[in-house]
TrEMBL record:
Key words, A-Z: ATP-binding, Kinase, Nucleotide-binding, Serine/threonine-protein kinase, Transferase
Span of domain Protein kinase: 21-275
Amino acids binding ATP: K50
Protein name as annotated: non-specific serine/threonine protein kinase
Cofactor: Mn(2+)
Protein EC: 2.7.11.1
Region of interest (Disordered), residue spans: 431-451
Protein family membership: Belongs to the protein kinase superfamily. CAMK Ser/Thr protein kinase family. SNF1 subfamily.
Reaction(s) this enzyme catalyzes, per UniProt: L-threonyl-[protein] + ATP = O-phospho-L-threonyl-[protein] + ADP + H(+); L-seryl-[protein] + ATP = O-phospho-L-seryl-[protein] + ADP + H(+)
Coiled coil, from the record: none
Length: 451
């Protein structure tokens, strides 16, 4: 059920993510994530904002899943895959800003009744085009189901939720994946066997289940007893509806082949007579855009999503300056709308006023500052977070001297607090929703639920 209560305070005003996106209604939720409809403040364009709690991820040991999901979504640029625009973060939450699929879940459409063969074929063609594209980029979804297939305003299909996806790099020396995941009714028999599986083969199986559901209006393998359902999957016990055409019947039989070695491949699907009707071969050929964040012409480091989420240093200037992270007493981060150059200039002025020495400097990326006799040491690292925001990471150590002055607390930190971006944390609602989190427990498959 969709919660239509606006996000925000009791007056109903929505929150704003880092001054860039207005947050609207909740449109989906799971154990570790909530998805809101949002609008970009500058353009008014609709977006989906997936909000993930860092604390819940840490407790669930799922930090790696989110990092992998971001890496995967940055790899994929296909008209039938939900596009990730950017990733933002505050101290407690991660925000996936994505393309908004106005048409909702495909599941909601098919739950009202089965589709015609022509409509089933249209969506299946879009699905196979996107899945084949993913496989060519070394990505295996592993949780394909109608709930993870969204529709845009033109009712075109969009694959979402790559939270359980795997990369080619995860394949073990035996050439197989071994992590048990997926949704029971859509899981391939070789996954149940727990002997390893080919990621591409299990995605094809799930696509077969989806095509069956679109054509029949119900699942091929279903039982209130989970073990009975697993036995049916393992043995391939299903009945194709009598209204199914011979060509579609043959394709379904090959898709739901319990033997992964003889199961039809993506390349063979594209050549299948039933599938080929009205299919545009250009749907299988798309250019992979370079989505990685790179050093700009100014040499300013643009922070990537991994750095933001994990809280890792990302561009660790303390190493470049010959320092050891463990030698510093504290590390703090500040987000500012000041330019990198302006922050550096101000820090240099503070150093001069306090008789501190800038002992090392790395272009416009940061600096190391020391006091007399080593009584104060500070390493400041600057990362371009977005086009408008800069993240300043500061490590410092201070020893008592005869003056008893606290350079950090008296001078440096007040300046940093002054330049800190006031919207670093969410305005109401999202940052203080601990009492609203009532989803309860959920299986791993529901961790990253999309709208």
């Amino acid at each position: 059920m969709v919660d239509t209560e606006p996000v925000g305070n009791r007056r109903g005003s929505g929150g704003v993510v880092l001054g860039k996106y207005e947050v609207g209604k909740l449109v989906g939720c799971g154990a570790f994530a909530k998805v809101y409809h949002g609008r970009e403040t500058g353009t008014g364009q609709s977006v989906a904002i997936k909000v993930v709690s860092k604390q819940r991820l840490h407790k669930g040991g799922l930090n790696g899943n989110v990092k992998r999901e971001i890496a995967i979504m940055h790899r994929l640029r296909h008209p039938s895959i939900v596009r990730l625009s950017e990733v933002l973060a505050t101290k407690s939450k991660i925000f996936f800003v994505m393309e908004f699929a106005k048409g909702g879940e495909l599941f909601a459409k098919v739950s009202k009744g089965r589709f015609s063969e022509d409509l089933s074929r249209r969506y299946f063609q879009q699905l196979i085009s996107a899945v084949g594209y993913c496989h060519s980029r070394g990505v295996f979804h592993r949780d394909l189901k109608p709930e993870n297939l969204l529709l845009d305003e033109k009712l075109e299909l969009k694959i979402s939720d790559f939270g359980l996806s795997a990369l080619t790099e995860q394949i073990r020396p035996d050439g197989l994946l071994h992590t048990l995941c997926g949704t029971p009714a859509y899981v391939a028999p070789e996954v149940l066997a727990k002997k390893g599986y080919d990621g591409a083969k299990i995605d094809v199986w799930s696509c077969g289940v989806i095509l069956f559901v679109l054509n029949a209006g119900y699942l091929p393998f279903n039982d209130h007893n989970l073990m009975v359902m697993y036995r049916k999957i393992y043995k391939g016990e299903f009945r194709i509806p009598k209204w199914t055409s011979p060509d579609l019947r043959r394709l379904l039989t090959r898709l739901l082949d319990t033997n992964p070695l003889s199961r039809i491949t993506i390349q063979e699907i594209i050549l299948d007579p039933w599938f080929k009707q009205g299919y545009d071969d250009r749907m299988s050929k798309f250019h992979l855009e370079d989505a990685d964040m790179k050093l700009g012409e100014t040499g300013i480091h643009r922070m990537n999503a991994f750095d933001i989420i994990s809280g890792s240093p990302g561009f660790n200037l303390s190493g470049l300056f010959g320092g050891d992270v463990r030698k510093y007493d504290r590390m703090e981060r500040f987000v500012s709308v000041w330019t990198v150059e302006r922050v550096v200039e101000k820090l240099e002025k503070i150093a001069a006023a306090e008789n501190l020495l800038v002992v090392a400097k790395k272009e416009a990326c940061g600096m190391k500052i020391e006091g007399q006799k080593g009584n104060f040491v500070m390493v400041a690292e600057l990362n371009q977070l977005t086009d408008e925001l800069v993240m300043l990471e500061v490590r410092h150590r201070q020893r008592a001297d005869v003056s008893g002055r606290d350079i950090w607390s008296d001078t440096v930190r007040p300046f940093l607090m002054e330049i800190m971006h006031k919207s670093d944390n969410m305005v109401s609602g999202l940052e203080t929703d601990q009492n609203q989190n009532q989803e309860g427990t959920s299986s791993l498959c529901d961790v990253n639920t999309m709208p």
